[in-house]
Amino acid sequence: MLRILLVEDEENIRETVKLNFEMEDYEVVTAADGRKALKHAAEQHFDIMIVDVMLPEVNGFQVVEQIRLSDRETPIIFLTAKDQAQDRIQGLKKGADDYLTKPFVFEELLLRVRRLIERTSKNPEVKPDLYVFGKNQVNFATYEATGNQGNFTLTKKEAMLLKLLTDRQGEVVSRQQILQSVWGYDVYPSTRTIDNFILSFRKYFETEPKVPTHFLSVRGVGYKFVS
């Protein structure tokens, strides 16, 4: 039985969509807010996720962005009333595979779910997720990297933080955003922990760690990655 994570705060929509998918022989796990969605995503396997954008606690864009730091394979559909082009673009940039606006017809949602799952099942292998900058290379699927120290393996947290920074290339990412996306919304380490991770990245990847060109500090705010 294929499993769906349905994240929707409107009870009527959540229960109606859940019932319809169950009638099509899917197993549906629901969450009414972003925190519960992240907890379910971290602890369980799903064949597809359907996520609303306007959620309590943690919004859908943040949910998907955090999931994508460690899970690049599970297909995700945004199901939302936000129908502006900029919203759709933002949703796809965050890592969603599809975007369906409300009001919607269930048959269309079902068709999109089936197509995404079929596409994923035809390509079950985890493909290398390579990122190259300067003389450095990182495989976000295996955490293997090449830098100043030759070949080495990143920790999961290092890979997640590096993925966040490279995905937002050229943008200033605050320490608060880093803590929420990489460490979650319930456990916050010291911001000094982030600084230590950045120092490690400079040792790994910068030609001159004391004069960084890739991992830049923005005083009083956070960090910016430049390729």
Automatic annotation (TrEMBL):
Pfam families per UniProt: Response_reg, Trans_reg_C
Entry keyword NADP? no
Alphabetized InterPro entries for the sequence: CheY-like_superfamily, OmpR/PhoB-type_DNA-bd, Sig_transdc_resp-reg_C-effctor, Sig_transdc_resp-reg_receiver, WalR-like, WH-like_DNA-bd_sf
Gene3D superfamilies registered for this protein in UniProt: 3.40.50.2300, Winged helix-like DNA-binding domain superfamily/Winged helix DNA-binding domain (1.10.10.10)
Every OmpR/PhoB-type domain range = 128-227
Chain ranges of the Response regulatory domain: 3-117
Q: Which residues carry this modification: 4-aspartylphosphate?
A: D52
The DNA-binding region ranges are 128-227
Keyword Hydrolase assigned to the entry: answer is: no
Sorted alphabetically, which keywords does the UniProt record give? DNA-binding, Phosphoprotein, Transcription, Transcription regulation, Two-component regulatory system
Database matches in PANTHER family: DNA-BINDING DUAL MASTER TRANSCRIPTIONAL REGULATOR RPAA (PTHR48111:SF21), REGULATOR OF RPOS (PTHR48111)
Identify this protein by name: Two-component system alkaline phosphatase synthesis response regulator PhoP
